[in-house]
Design goal:
Number of domains: 1
Structural class: mainly alpha
Shape: globular
Distance between the termini: 18 Å
Number of helices: 5
Number of strands: 0
Helix content: over 70%
Length: 119
């Protein structure tokens, strides 16, 4: 693990992102989603944040967040497609959250990956 502070920040941001996504989803749908769907959204974004935090890939922070968001987003999009929902919204949403988690962690909190700090 690179940096405990970074992992903590990215994980918390992922969980916050999950909460915000639930609120937006409920607003758009007009009713709350089932509990299993809500847990899926929160845990997926929490795990996305954790993975971004522990990753030691030597990429620019924006690309790093987009790649991890894309990996998780394709998984979410295929899951949505399998349950008869649209493919694009989960993919785009997860891409955006991956980017935002890295942006806030690296730029606002100045907790970049160890490989970036040492370079």
């Amino acid at each position: 693990m690179q940096n405990t502070r970074r992992v903590l920040i990215t994980s918390v941001l992922g969980l916050i992102g999950g909460g915000i996504s639930l609120a937006l989803r409920s607003f758009v749908m007009g009713q709350p989603a089932p509990l299993s769907d809500n847990l899926h959204v929160v845990l997926t974004l929490g795990i996305l944040g954790f993975v971004i935090g522990i990753s030691s890939l030597r990429w620019h922070w924006a690309l790093h967040g987009l790649v991890w968001g894309g990996i998780f987003g394709v998984n979410n999009a295929l899951d949505a497609l399998g349950s008869g929902q649209m493919f694009i919204p989960p993919l785009v949403t997860t891409l955006v959250w991956g980017f935002l988690i890295e942006l806030i962690t690296t730029v606002v909190f100045k907790a970049g990956a160890a490989s970036e700090e040492g370079a």
